[in-house]
Amino acid sequence: MIGNLIHKLTQRNNREVTGKEVDKMSKVSEKVSSVIEQSNYLSRDLSWLKFNERVLDQARSLDRTLMERLKFLAITASNMDEFFTIRVGSLYNYLDYGKERVDYSGLREVPFRKALLTAAQQFSKDQHQVFLEELLPLFVKNELRLVYHDELSAEEQQQAEGYFDRTIYPMLTPMLYDYTHTFPVLLPKVLIFGVVTKNPDQPHAHEDDHQRLSFVQIPANLPRFMNFEREDEVLFLPIEEIVRQHIKKLYRNVEILSANLFRITRNGDFTLEESDDIEADFIDEIKQKIKNRRLGRVVRVELEAGRQGPGQEWMVNLLKKRWEIDDYNLFETPSLIDYTSLWQIIRHPDFKEELPAPHPPVPPLGLEREKVTDIFETMKERDILLHHPYNNFEPVLQLLEQAAEDPNVLAIKLTIYRLAKRSRITEALLKAAENGKHVSVLFEVKARFDEENNIREAQRLQKAGCFVIYGISRFKTHTKLLLVVRNEGNRVVRYAHLSSGNYNEETAKLYTDIGLLTTNEVYTQDISEFFNVITGHSLPNEYQYLITAPRDMRKQLINLIRCEAENAQKGLPSGICIKLNSLEDQEVIDELYKASQAGVRIRLIVRGICCLRPQRPGLSENITVRSLVGDFLEHTRVFYFHNNGDPKVYGGSADIMVRSFDRRIESLFLLANHRVKQEAIQILQYNLLDNINAYELKEDGDYKRCQVDDGGEPFNIQQKFFDLTEDEVMSAGLFNDVPAQEAVPDEVEEHDEEEVH
């Protein structure tokens, strides 16, 4: 537990601690652990670290190839970079400015910092243990090696020196820090050598005077490894070893006392001030904030271990004082710093076969055609549920591309949160504008880490004549909606796509999501109203199929939960099953607790953060929580409410988080069509059956990996969904549901014009 981790970390202090100090620290750690365990809620940030542990668990899997395992290790490193940049950065926004914060664990900001960084320290140790003890020993038999300079042949050493002299050396710039030179700007997430040299002017002075510190940043646009192709293996020489070997060329006639590699992570969490001039001040402010990420306060220092030199301790103490950090922020690395660099090895052409080829997508149920020639006619036949990546994202792209060229299309409206780098979505919208269509795009330029790409793409669209809205005041537009308006002679038909995932054709191959293609006029009218609200000042009537935030999503979800609780208290059938990415909103969690106490069976499938504590006697005995982590990132959001045998099922963009309800424009959409509803129910049912990718959350906050029962069969949903049959879908049920027969045959047009609202 956390208390034990804190105790372990305190033992790593360089100085000796007295018995009294150890006893005091032990009591503090026990108190911290007790507070966390007594809370009815799990800490958001500690829960996220548990998620990354489950990702790291994939790197341990003996069923995976070495390259697959390295891939998951690299993902954990990328995740940690973002975690420190945003979540730990956010915590320091409270610490640095003296603001109060109480974590869901019950801890105030100062003790929570220690608990969080202690847990992060332990996770870092686990990463290195996996790499050094489980993965690195497999390199040789997979015909690759990670090498140091002295393991190269004379010819290879000469090649490395030539590479340094021609390419690396001209790019390096030593930056001195002393009483005549200000402290240089050190970039986050790049490799930096802290070089301590002897001051030639005062060789016998006090330590602080006879030593000088300078920094050498290794340019991030250089490959991390230099490759050497041998007959039977590929060698990977880290760039820092090349620089280390030849760093004296930067300090001629100067004695180097130590040269230690480190990497820093800065606070990148920022908020935006509201502005009346959204198209000028707002965009400029975002650009400035992006630049400021490179200058934020330091929250983590990764420092290579085992290279003690006479100047290292002096340098570390100086950095700690300069950046106002302590040992909790220092992460000693006994192997590579920054495992994200492993992608260079993973993507090396010689190891291409070590990454399994992706399974080709299958047609969505009810649409067995390999290629849809006319997406408009197809959508008018029936509602179509797309389940990515099992179903191709191509129908969505085809809808936009066909709309861009179709002379009968009058308008296209779309919300965008994240795009692919070379986006077919953007190209289709540009073509539509060129062809005279009215194109309206609500472009969320505040999408974290995609701000620059989104601003660039939005400005391209604006220059082409598209009507671009750069976001709505203090809210992030996270909803995913598309509307195409088409003139069809005596009537105008609207075509819609509603989704849980982004309009990004690349991530659609990697993330599980659902999307609904429909011409149902209830949906299209709701979406038209919604666009009028978020782009203008319209106040809508009640939506029929949409639940939206920040309007009333929390309230409506709570009402649906309370309805299940009331049914349970009346002795009627009840049940809740929700699949989402994160569960954090305390008001909704409290309602789920009350529903559990009323007897409602609640099954939650939460990929990442879960602040709800399941299986606690008297609080949440009827709640189970599982998390699925596998080859695809589980991104689907589905909300199921039993409703006394007439289930209400929603899909959409929102998680159960404070930010989703209060600070984002979100939407959930009712799955009204019987076949589509059954498909969503079947998704939930399979998620509850998985025994390969699934972990169960225990009452103490730990996760236990699900196992195949004795005599049972493996059930891997990330394979099963490729072989799904219509019979399986139509017979799916939750909480002993017996699916009702569909009232209207699929062949009959379901969207009568009289249904327009």
From TrEMBL:
<dbReference type="GO" id="GO:0016301">
    <property type="term" value="F:kinase activity"/>
</dbReference>
<keyword id="KW-0418">Kinase</keyword>
<keyword id="KW-0067">ATP-binding</keyword>
<feature type="binding site">
    <location>
        <position position="635"/>
    </location>
    <ligand>
        <name>ATP</name>
    </ligand>
</feature>
<feature type="binding site">
    <location>
        <position position="511"/>
    </location>
    <ligand>
        <name>ATP</name>
    </ligand>
</feature>
<feature type="binding site">
    <location>
        <position position="418"/>
    </location>
    <ligand>
        <name>Mg(2+)</name>
    </ligand>
</feature>
<keyword id="KW-0547">Nucleotide-binding</keyword>
<keyword id="KW-0808">Transferase</keyword>
<dbReference type="InterPro" id="IPR024953">
    <property type="entry name" value="PP_kinase_middle"/>
</dbReference>
<feature type="active site" description="Phosphohistidine intermediate">
    <location>
        <position position="478"/>
    </location>
</feature>
<dbReference type="InterPro" id="IPR041108">
    <property type="entry name" value="PP_kinase_C_1"/>
</dbReference>
<feature type="binding site">
    <location>
        <position position="79"/>
    </location>
    <ligand>
        <name>ATP</name>
    </ligand>
</feature>
<dbReference type="InterPro" id="IPR003414">
    <property type="entry name" value="PP_kinase"/>
</dbReference>
<dbReference type="InterPro" id="IPR036832">
    <property type="entry name" value="PPK_N_dom_sf"/>
</dbReference>
<keyword id="KW-0479">Metal-binding</keyword>
<protein>
    <recommendedName>
        <fullName>Polyphosphate kinase</fullName>
        <ecNumber>2.7.4.1</ecNumber>
    </recommendedName>
</protein>
<comment type="function">
    <text>Catalyzes the reversible transfer of the terminal phosphate of ATP to form a long-chain polyphosphate (polyP).</text>
</comment>
<feature type="domain" description="Polyphosphate kinase middle">
    <location>
        <begin position="155"/>
        <end position="345"/>
    </location>
</feature>
<dbReference type="InterPro" id="IPR025198">
    <property type="entry name" value="PPK_N_dom"/>
</dbReference>
<feature type="domain" description="Polyphosphate kinase C-terminal">
    <location>
        <begin position="374"/>
        <end position="538"/>
    </location>
</feature>
<feature type="domain" description="Polyphosphate kinase N-terminal">
    <location>
        <begin position="41"/>
        <end position="146"/>
    </location>
</feature>
<keyword id="KW-0460">Magnesium</keyword>
<dbReference type="Pfam" id="PF02503">
    <property type="entry name" value="PP_kinase"/>
</dbReference>
<dbReference type="Pfam" id="PF13089">
    <property type="entry name" value="PP_kinase_N"/>
</dbReference>
<dbReference type="Pfam" id="PF17941">
    <property type="entry name" value="PP_kinase_C_1"/>
</dbReference>
<keyword id="KW-0597">Phosphoprotein</keyword>
<feature type="binding site">
    <location>
        <position position="607"/>
    </location>
    <ligand>
        <name>ATP</name>
    </ligand>
</feature>
<feature type="domain" description="Polyphosphate kinase C-terminal">
    <location>
        <begin position="546"/>
        <end position="716"/>
    </location>
</feature>
<feature type="binding site">
    <location>
        <position position="448"/>
    </location>
    <ligand>
        <name>Mg(2+)</name>
    </ligand>
</feature>
<dbReference type="InterPro" id="IPR025200">
    <property type="entry name" value="PPK_C_dom2"/>
</dbReference>
<dbReference type="Pfam" id="PF13090">
    <property type="entry name" value="PP_kinase_C"/>
</dbReference>
<comment type="similarity">
    <text>Belongs to the polyphosphate kinase 1 (PPK1) family.</text>
</comment>
<dbReference type="InterPro" id="IPR036830">
    <property type="entry name" value="PP_kinase_middle_dom_sf"/>
</dbReference>
